[in-house]
Amino acid sequence: MKKLVTTAILAACMAMPAFAQPSEEAFVFEEKGGEKVDAFRGRIMVPENRANPKSRMIPVTYVRFAATGEQKGPPIIYLAGGPGGSGIGTAKYRRFDMFMALRAYGDVIALDQRGTGASNILPECVSSKVVPPTEAISDAAYIALNRAAFEECLAFWKSEGVDVAGYNTVENARDIDALRQALGAEKVVLWGTSYGSHLAFAAMKEMGDHIDRVVVSSAEGLDQTIKLPALTDSYFGRLQKAVDSQPAAKAAYGDIKALIGRVHGKLEAEPLLLHPRMKDGTVKDYLFQKRDMQLLASYFISDPWAVQRLLSLYLAMDYDMTAPFEALIADWFVPGEPIKMDAMSTLMDVASGMSDKRRALVKAQARDALLGDWLNFTYHYDGLAPELDLGDAFRVGPVSNIPTLLLTGTLDGRTYVEGQAEATAGLSNLTQVTVVNAGHNLFMSSPEVQEAINAFMEGKPQPRDEIVLELQDLAPKQ
């Protein structure tokens, strides 16, 4: 294949260390619907751990969509959420239209962060620890099994040559700056969501002079990796108002906190033995406990479309209907399989950690919270690898006047309205647009979201500070 490298990139490479030299090749990028566009596939090599002089080099891969606008601005780098999401995958499967639209303002780069997608050279860990599928084990015993699996995985990754201390958000942010330099850009625009905003906030502290502007949604602050259970309960209060606005949903669910409490109480008193038929046709028994329902809810509260399914599941359990749960288990996991862990997503969250103040709040609030302390599982790995923790200095939010656009969904069950305000408190040049009835994944939820981003990129006043979406039908499906 012919390798195409621009003159500007070549010039920048001559002044840069060897690890920052990009290699790009032209190719045709095809999104899930079959639409094709010319693009460039690139890669730089970076130290796995910059604190280690003997660090091995690892790849950071990206796809660059060339600018189409007459006045080309700085490169726009997409930061995927997770941690663990693929920027390239997002461009292909979820937000292709946004990537294409933003080309009006500069080259748009779908970045696969270290350890993700095309940049992933890390082995998955399959531990020896197994959660007994038909035994009613306590939360303490369940956590102990997972903690033991994490320790086992740490040892496994190290034995495979992985420098586990290199997988943190600071190193991730420094990769962004290395890519900026490799592209020969004085500044870049950062565009991200959820963990991508967490990474953007870290980058503001690491390379703020080289950031032109930032667009984030569903903001996760630097001390917000572990969510506060009380804010989850507040979210359910907002959700109740949404349910009450729809007669069919209100009639079906009634008081949703009471519904959730009833189901949790039922499962705590008597776990339910399920018999899911797996994809290979075999039937596996699984004892479904209160903890399983809380973990399930922690996943499904992200967006209104997902919470509609969640409330339907709670309603089904309230009426002793087991089929929906057996189908769900068959889709998600095989009971009795060993505990598995992804290196990047696990290590990133562990390294970001939590302050002592937040740890105490989570512990106190979890006692009475609907979902307990299950929303972010790495909370339960606390104290196992203190050498990986980035420390309280990392968790202090950025203080910056970099122009920043924040898009906040009122029905976001993962990064809450109150938490997003706290995460951006130090940003003096902040523009916030509230997207009413949107959840965690609000990009592309309305053409008005793209209009808000366009206005921000053009330095124009926002046409509105609130975008109102039609509320998802929350009633159970017939």
CATH topology descriptor of the largest domain: Rossmann fold
Low-confidence stretches: 1-21
Proportion of strand residues: 15-25%
Strand order across the largest sheet? 1-2-3-5-4-7-8-12-13-14
Which CATH first-tier class of the largest domain would you pick? Alpha Beta
* Count of the separate structural domains: 3
Described by strand count, sense and barrel closure, the largest sheet is: 10 strands, mixed
Rg, Å, rounded = 23 Å
Number of helices: 17
The shape is: globular
Mind sketching the topology for me?
Elements lengths: L6 H8 L8 E8 L5 E12 L9 E9 L10 E4 L7 H7 L2 H6 L6 E5 L12 E6 L8 H21 L9 H14 L5 E6 L1 H13 L3 E7 L11 H16 L2 H7 L2 H14 L2 E3 L11 E3 L1 H11 L3 H15 L4 H10 L5 E4 L1 H10 L3 H11 L25 H4 L8 E6 L7 H7 L6 E7 L10 H11 L8 E3 L10
Helix pairs in contact: 5-6, 9-10, 9-11
